[in-house]
Amino acid sequence: MTLQEHIDTPRVAVVTGSDSGIGRATAVRLARDGFDIGVTWHRDRDGADRTADEVRAQGRRAAVRQADLSDLPAAAAVVDALADELGGIDVLVNCAGTGTATPYLDIGLDTLRQVLDVDLAGPFLCGQRAARRMIRQGRGGRIVNITSVHEHQPRVGAAPYCAAKGGLGLLTQVMALELAEHGITVNSVAPGEIATPMTGQTDTDVHDEERPGIPLGRPGDAREVAAVVAFLVGPESSYVTGASWAVDGGMLRMGPQAGSHLADDSWRRI
Ligand code: NAD
Fold it and tell me: 96 alpha carbon to ligand 1 midpoint, in Å?
């Protein structure tokens, strides 16, 4: 397929967890780039409607469905429901995610399973559904899994989250190998600290925030993550698959530097 044919193809992107934060920013950015958008929400119906309104304001179509990814395998059917409504699927962004702030020694099996379902098994099953449809459609596709810097490095209090995101990172690589023959690329995007509800930062101007431990000195804005997703689902990234894209202001590069500069052991506590 030529670049022009790709651009002319009707395009649909499903973005899970797009009722807020990185998911909403991604949905709106991809709408701006010409995609019709499938929106999923968990608890925030109003947030999903706001995302859909912003998509429509870009002149694109939006379809909205509820999905609780701790209810598997049933919840993964949302991918097919949205694809049916929008007439296909060219892009899946697995963005929905959840985590804990609990010491490893205190985490029970129910909590572990809930985080692994939402952050790992959910993307696994949603990815399968999207890929099967992309193969049937015969025009390739793009899958982006939103992981975290904790795909690569640990965090105190986040044992299930780190296990899930690390797993999702390696799952991304297997998907990239197995789906390449069908013209489907699969990459992960690994955000650092991004100003969203997940980090307790809504309506924050990230340029007003100081983060001495992050090389760029501030948190990230959700639109800065969305911009990298937009590249990975657009025609310019056609030879990129199986990679993990850190969007973290350099945070991942701080391991030894931070390790030799922390002045006390408060990091051991949550
Ligand atoms: P957010 O709270 O705005 O979004 C979380 C999303 O996950 C929401 O849309 C919510 O509906 C969805 N979700 C939560 N539980 C769900 C469930 N059981 N079923 C279905 N959906 C569910 O936070 P965000 O920061 O935009 O997070 C988006 C993604 O980015 C997550 O995967 C998160 O792990 C990842 N991430 C965020 C940061 C950060 O600093 N904000 C850093 C690294 C990774």
Answer: 5
Which residue ranges make up each domain of the chain? 8-268
Phi, psi (deg, nearest 5) at residue 234: -95, 175
For ligand 1, what atom is nearest to the CA of residue 67? 20
d(CA 216, CA 237): 25
Tell me the best of 18, 29, 98 to mutate to test the pocket of ligand 1, counting ligand atoms within 8 Å of each CB and taking the most. 98
Q: Annotated catalytic sites, by residue?
A: 161
Q: Which atom of ligand 1 is nearest to the CA of 43?
A: 11
pLDDT in tens, the chain (270 residues): 544 455 456 599 999 999 999 999 999 999 999 999 999 999 999 999 999 999 999 999 999 999 999 999 999 999 999 999 999 999 999 999 999 999 999 999 999 999 999 999 999 999 999 999 999 999 999 999 999 999 999 999 999 999 999 999 999 999 999 999 999 999 999 999 999 999 999 888 999 999 999 999 999 999 999 999 999 999 999 999 999 999 999 999 999 999 999 999 999 999
CATH superfamily of 8-268: NAD(P)-binding Rossmann-like Domain (3.40.50.720)
Cα separation, 61 vs 35, whole angstroms: 8
> How many A from CA of 263 to the centre of ligand 1?
32
pTM of the complete model: 0.97
Q: What is the number of the ligand 1 atom nearest to the C-alpha of 194? A: 40
Full DSSP string of 167-228: HHHHHHHHHHHHHGGGTEEEEEEEE-SEESGGGT-SS--GGG---TTSTTSSPEEHHHHHHH
Ligand 1 binding site (Cβ under 6 Å of any ligand atom): 17, 19-23, 41-42, 67-70, 95-98, 118, 146, 148, 191, 193-194, 196-199
